[in-house]
Write a structure and sequence with these properties.
Chains A, B: Keywords: DNA-binding, Repressor, Transcription, Transcription regulation. Two copies of one chain form a homodimer. With about 350 residues, chain A is of the alpha/beta class. Helix content of chain A is about 40%, strand content about 20%. The N and C termini of chain A lie far apart (about 55 Å). The first copy, chain A, binds a DNA duplex (30 and 30 nucleotides) through helix 2 and helix 4.
Chain lengths: ~350, ~350
DNA sequence: GTTGCTTGCTAAGGCGCTTTAGCAAGAATT
DNA sequence: AATTCTTGCTAAAGCGCCTTAGCAAGCAAC
């Protein structure tokens, strides 16, 4: 029952033509002068045998695998980054590419092995994805290959897909200003960009966008509470510290959703209401943004789109080199007073 | 600079031996009577040229790709299921296998195409992963191939990896009983197994394990609140309903963490404390189990291990067919009175 | 001194596909 | 009637590897 897959030779034999003819016809080549008779005989035979091409053989022959390698650090651990992968898979499907996946779990040695294995398999290109936007280093084998960095940068000037943090942050401030929030604005997570030298380049851009917006709208950020770890507890503590001040903040921008989640709880515990007493907005559009009441207004990280774009850049031979930034749309939900939600809250 | 990769022929030329010799030596074949001289010349030449085998050619020649195809429904969407994939990737690495990934987004047509593409690439086996344990259907192309179902079953009796829901549930009840909780026990999410005909087979087993435990310990589940959708709000409402009863439940078993999350909030809102007033335990060990205060005692779904096992079964020619169940360990955290947490809470 | 075994290595075919060059027969040209 | 063009198709080589069969030389045996 488990009889051999039919090959082109089998089709040729059944159709009574040469293997060459089969190849030509099934490839849909134009300009070959094969008669209609032959064409239809080939198609019929192929259908009868359930012929499917052997992609390995084709790859060997054409030197193109129609496959791309995806090397992630620990992307499938974090929900955010699995969105990157989902986007890449979607993009790959659109380009009829197969994706070979490897996960390094952060180990450079594993990364090297995985990269080499993928290159040895003849992938047409590589995508390196980082779960947090980082400057990463790549194994040497990667550098000889067409590659795209997804949510990451390397020292060299290679194709990279990154979120447009600057404009995302800026447009959040614009929205807040437009809703009338121009004073008593606080930031939890970091201070002005010039005060934060040690921050990753993406966070830096996020801060620059915010402070550019503040400047443009004459906003003096009321109080900032820099915290190292962006976790629930720091958000909670940060918010409590803010609430203990003389003037209570009316808008709090948290640098990520976890901070906002903690801050929300602190606001709630203080007997205050969101957004009536305090408005809150944040970054990332993490799933937990929907677990808070009311749901968070947050600047979303467009991971899926980024993943798709990575594949597009990889496939397009004349992609402009360097960074490609993807819009970070503001998801307006109910946590900001004066803004009409764009989705059901 | 981007000069051709060295082939065995190049190595042979440099070493002054035949390509056959190179193949034999580099394959580490024993029993070939090649002299030490030849062996070392080959190794030296290979090293000098940085020779790496072309895996596509090898696959074509040996009819083994050393690759497995992973078809997920929407696994990389859900954090739980991305753990399945992580496990599979880990297992694949251990077996020096490459993983070709495809995502169907639930569309049977995409599933068929993806499966065929993977088979056309000559994968040595297929893993189908479902984000919720389900009975799934597979495209015909899959059935001719060696395959493992990960977190899923099909009608036919094929290799399948599933969580051991029955024993997981049973051991939770055992633990609760051991901690002295034998009355005022409530369940949120579903009723006794015989009352729930429409539930998926995994949930069925979970219920059977629970009720078996109840019977063994003489526990009469105090009240059950069946709800269709296992969401926060239903957990919240369910708990409120329970709290409105005459006798207040002392232990609540939620059938998943989201329910527990909602229930926790209801308990908190009612001015009660966990675990002093009400103990709570649930299933899944979702990330949100750590977002609740106190952190949830929950029966964990061993996704990573399941993923690893799937690869092991696939690679092992004489795996016993049928279902392979993986233990569901109870993660004891602080939400149950009388149980010492096994991890920091 | 033919036969036979061992040792050390290579020739060559095959995996299934693509692609280039080219063959044979008829049609068009001179 | 010989030459050149088309037309319609196929032979054959090549992608890079693995593997089987077998060759040549040296040695042992009869």
């Amino acid at each position: 029952m488990a009889n051999r897959r039919a090959t082109q030779a089998d089709v040729a034999a059944l159709a009574g033509v040469s293997p060459t003819a089969v190849s030509l016809v099934l490839a849909g080549r134009t300009g070959t002068r094969l008669s209609d008779t032959v064409q239809s005989r080939v198609h019929a035979a192929a259908a009868e045998l359930g012929y499917r091409p052997n992609l390995t053989a084709r790859a060997l022959s054409t030197q193109r695998s129609h496959a791309i390698g995806l090397v992630s650090d620990q992307a499938s651990v974090s929900p955010e980054a699995s969105a990157l992968i989902r986007g890449a898979l979607r993009g790959a499907r659109a380009h009829r590419m197969t994706v070979l996946t490897a996960e390094t779990e952060g180990d450079p040695e594993i990364q090297r092995e995985a990269t080499e294995a993928l290159v040895d398999r003849g992938v047409d290109g590589l995508i390196f994805v980082a779960s947090r936007s980082r400057v990463i280093t790549l194994p040497e084998a990667a550098m000889r290959t067409r590659l795209v960095l997804l949510n990451a940068r390397i020292a060299e000037d290679r194709l990279a897909v990154l979120p447009d943090e600057h404009n995302g942050a800026r447009s959040l401030v614009d929205l807040l200003a437009q809703a009338g929030h121009r004073d008593a604005v606080a930031v939890i997570g970091a201070g002005a960009p010039e005060l934060e030298p040690d921050v990753t380049f993406t966070v830096k851009r996020r801060l620059e966008g915010l402070w550019e917006g503040f400047a443009a709208h004459g906003i003096t950020p009321f109080a900032t509470v820099p915290e190292a770890e962006w976790e629930l507890s720091t958000g909670y503590d940060g918010m409590r510290a803010l609430l203990a001040r003389e003037t209570r903040p009316k808008v709090v921008i948290c640098l990520n959703d976890r901070l906002a989640f903690g801050a929300s709880r602190a606001i709630h515990d203080a007997g205050l209401r969101i957004p009536e007493d305090v408005s809150i907005a944040s970054f990332d559009d993490d799933v937990i943004a929907e677990y808070v009441q009311p749901q968070l207004t947050t600047v979303s990280l467009p991971y899926v789109r980024m993943g798709e774009l990575a594949v597009e850049l990889l496939m397009n031979d004349d992609s402009a080199p360097g960074e490609h930034l993807v819009d970070m749309p503001v998801h307006v939900r109910r946590s900001v007073r004066g803004l009409a939600p764009t989705e059901q809250g």
